[in-house]
User: Fold this.
Amino acid sequence: MSTITPALFDFLRELKLNNNRPWFEGNKARYVQVVKQPLLEFIADFGTYLPEISPHYLAIPKATGGSMFRIYRDVRFSKDKSPYKTAAALQFRHEQGKDVHAPGFYLHLEPDSVFAGCGIWQPDTQTANKIRSAIAAHPDNWLAAIQDAAFQKTFTLEGESLKQPPRGFDADHPLLEDLKRKDFIGSVELSEQVVCQDDFLTQYVEMCKAASPLMRFLTEALGLAW
Assistant:
């Protein structure tokens, strides 16, 4: 039985139309009931399967400092002062990961925009260059990861790229387009109907297993245990 229900998306749609503190405070109990608690349960349930994929990735059922993203926006440096995010999201990071830019498995739940992801998004230059160095040194391993049959069937490689070859790397390298990546991520579009299906947890586990070749390459490229 999926803990994610259409009520989660109904709440987020209404929040988008009423993105203010009085409305949220008046509907906070509903937020806990249909968004927060179901997702914390999903995290805990997924955590029972995660060691089968990698014992070094964590599922922490906490809304603060855990695998669930906070609903509150950081508006300090933003022109948009809307106080709340209108999407819910989960990330299962490596035990050494400190923030959203660490390698991880991801699930994004937003009305009309639902997807699963894997990899590492917008790493700093030092981290990106470790991955690029691993690609340059072990091109066959990189190709084996991104051309794995289960990975290709499930995910599409996406993200931003540099316009020029990264400094210090061969501009004639046969994998130059991969070396130019700023993001090393795979994603798969889902739907509200799919994530509300009774067997979605099982589906998500299988997606994460399919992500394993890429995730293992990135994890080991950063000198972390897989």
